[in-house]
Structure to design on (474 residues):
């Protein structure tokens, strides 16, 4: 295992000290990053000690160390998973050949664009979550928010390292631009839609970490297969950090449900108004938030049929998640069926080349993974004896990217008229009144171990600490 030099100005396990030019360039970017963190990162809480985990190695067992750190002192740095000697390209036209330690000239602009797009999402989510610290339902949750935030900051470092190390001047300029675009900015927004959505409540935060960070997981898994080895190694390590973000989402939503079920039992009611008066999120509202963030995240995978995706796959640039699990790693002249609008208000099957359908293949894997948590949430609902089932809507519902963009359907994916969609919209997606209600619940709780009334405590604390641990010293 390679060791991380934590004492260096920029902690790293890539022997940065041996490459003075790169080191100098990154040391120039570092103050710009810290400045961005100061201006666009978590509002306030700069001086507070937060019980954070920091990477100290890159192996599966011992990579994390826990301790109190004020966020601006977090050791952001460059950590790549260890090199796998003799690694070969696993898919596409070059499969079986040695992986690349540098970017081939003909794929340079493609790699740069993909790395920039991935990199852009990392600081974007920090910007979206900027104000949430002020309404955290507990110190435990506040700490988790900040853990996610500092790690997204580190993911930005991961992409900026690649840009600086492999893309020369263009890369350095892109690294600067990553700090100049901002989530929701009218003039210079973030690149992808979901990352410009406002986030002013913790229910959205939990849905986002469940659904949108999971999109991140699948993008990273696809990059982890790349023939460009430094990209594969960077993303492999990012995946270990990412797992905690989805844990925050799954347990967060699960705790909201648990609390709602408790109150439903106490009051013996499923009446929305009564539950809202009691200060918990009713399950139909939860379903609407789920619909919103799940469908927004579906768009991040791109169009169902894509010649770009085909060329990424053919050229070893970006693979499928867990490529080894697929039987055919070349997909020459293989076909798959996708569902497309038939132009007459219906759905029609269409056969496309698998290479063109890689986005859809990845999206469907993502949906499967999303369903794991939904099943778990439903088990809790069932155990409570409540007749309600949360459900992922169809991948055709409320799409803004791809073949179903702008085609109105119901949550089951059946095409409907725009008028019908409009008539049902308030049943399917959060209304202004829903948002006002959810926001009204967002009251800050700062006493260790105490939770806001709309969320149950977690089953256990972080790193075997008690739930009532002082996770953030306010
Ligand atoms: Fe990330
Ligand atoms: Fe994440």
């Amino acid at each position: 295992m390679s060791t991380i030099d934590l004492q260096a100005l920029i902690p790293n396990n890539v022997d940065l000290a041996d490459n003075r030019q790169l080191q100098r360039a990154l040391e120039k970017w570092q103050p710009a990053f810290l400045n961005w963190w100061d201006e666009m990162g978590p509002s306030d809480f700069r001086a507070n000690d937060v019980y954070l985990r920091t990477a100290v190695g890159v192996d599966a067992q011992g990579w994390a160390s826990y301790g109190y750190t004020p966020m601006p002192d977090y050791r952001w740095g460059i950590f790549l998973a260890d090199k796998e000697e003799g690694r070969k390209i696993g898919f596409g036209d070059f499969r079986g050949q040695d992986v690349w330690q540098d970017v081939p000239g003909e794929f340079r602009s493609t790699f740069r664009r993909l790395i920039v797009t991935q990199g852009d999402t990392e600081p974007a989510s920090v910007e979206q979550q900027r104000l949430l610290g002020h309404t955290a339902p507990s110190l435990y949750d506040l700490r988790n928010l900040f853990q996610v935030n500092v790690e997204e900051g580190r993911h930005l470092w991961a992409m900026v390292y690649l840009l600086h190390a492999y893309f020369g001047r263009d890369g350095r300029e892109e690294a600067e631009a990553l700090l100049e675009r901002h989530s929701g900015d009218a003039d210079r927004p973030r690149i992808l839609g979901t990352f410009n959505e406002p986030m002013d409540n913790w229910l959205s935060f939990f849905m986002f970490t469940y659904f949108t960070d999971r999109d991140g997981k699948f993008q990273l898994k696809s990059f982890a297969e790349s023939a460009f080895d430094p990209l594969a190694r960077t993303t492999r390590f990012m995946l270990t950090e990412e797992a905690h973000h989805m844990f925050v989402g799954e347990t967060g939503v699960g705790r909201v449900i648990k609390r709602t079920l408790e109150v439903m039992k106490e009051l013996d009611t499923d009446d929305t108004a009564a539950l809202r008066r009691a200060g918990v999120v009713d399950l139909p509202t939860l379903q609407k938030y789920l619909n919103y963030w799940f469908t927004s995240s579906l768009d991040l995978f791109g169009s169902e049929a894509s010649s770009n995706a085909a060329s990424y796959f053919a050229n070893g640039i970006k693979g499928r998640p867990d490529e080894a699990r697929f039987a055919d790693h070349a997909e020459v002249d293989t076909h798959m069926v996708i569902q497309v609008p038939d132009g007459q208000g219906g759905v029609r099957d269409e056969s496309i080349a698998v290479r063109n359908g890689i986005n859809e293949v990845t999206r469907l894997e993502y949906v499967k993974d999303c369903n794991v948590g939904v099943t778990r949430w439903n088990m809790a609902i069932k155990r409570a004896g409540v007749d309600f089932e949360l459900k992922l809507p169809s991948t055709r519902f409320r799409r803004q990217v791809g073949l179903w963009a702008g085609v109105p359907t119901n949550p089951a994916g059946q095409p409907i008229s725009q008028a019908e969609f409009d008539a049902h919209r308030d049943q399917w997606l959060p209304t202004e009144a829903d948002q006002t209600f959810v926001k009204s619940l967002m009251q800050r709780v700062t006493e260790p171990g105490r939770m806001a009334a709309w969320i149950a405590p977690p089953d256990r604390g972080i790193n075997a600490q008690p739930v009532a641990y002082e996770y953030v010293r306010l």
